[in-house]
Here is the input.
Amino acid sequence: MNCLDSALSGMEISFSHTSNGEEQELAAMNKIYPDAPSALGGLIEDGMTLAVGGFGLCGIPENLILALRDTGKKNLTVVSNNAGVDDWGLGLLLQSRQIRKMVSSYVGENAEFERQYLSGELEVEFCPQGTLAERMRAGGAGIPGFYTRTGVGTLIAEGKDHRDFDGQTYILERGIKADIALVKAWKADASGNLVYRKTARNFNPLAATCGKVAVAEVEELVPTGAIDPDQVHTPGIYIDRIVNCPDQQKRIEQRITRSRS
Here is the structure.
């Protein structure tokens, strides 16, 4: 029995308890999609803004990114810490010229990202890493903006509102709201409650909250109630669609091993 069958089996058991429980489980069941393309079905349009979880290649929704590429939609604005590498992750969408603008904290290991930026083909809004995280969190929390000292006196501060608080100058940063959020989690239940694994958590919880519609790619799918509530990182109320993708490549950007003596 695979993870999806197990999750559905758990739901069938709950159906026999109460009518209210059955309705809740049926609602949760509607979040589950059989594959990444169907999970994005009817969602993606040209010119949309997408928040995508991941840090480098760690914790990226790799199957959803492939499905996004295959939609052929263009002029996308993508909010993500960086853009993967040349031949994987968001780098695939740079190769296919589907991204018009990146909102990122650094170029990373992606030579094509660098080339498109320097040639003027790609618009890039550089944002300090901590500020980017807080902008996504703020958007998800309904906070339109916040003041921070990060970037004061640099190019980052140009054109932004400056205010003094307690003798220090701060700049205004706007919260980020995306049309679609694509995230990767280790485990989910049928209601969309997510658990991330170690450093693969990174920007994923923040991206999940700032999207109007959030789609989660997960390695394990379990019945509702199988995850201890205290272990939930992203509550299911934020997640609209789930796709179980147990086969993950999980590529490594820089593989460094210690030489044997």
About this structure: The chain has one domain: 3-8+46-194+201-243. Confidence is low (pLDDT under 50) at residues 1-18. The longest helix spans residues 3-15. The two ends are 46 Å apart (CA to CA).
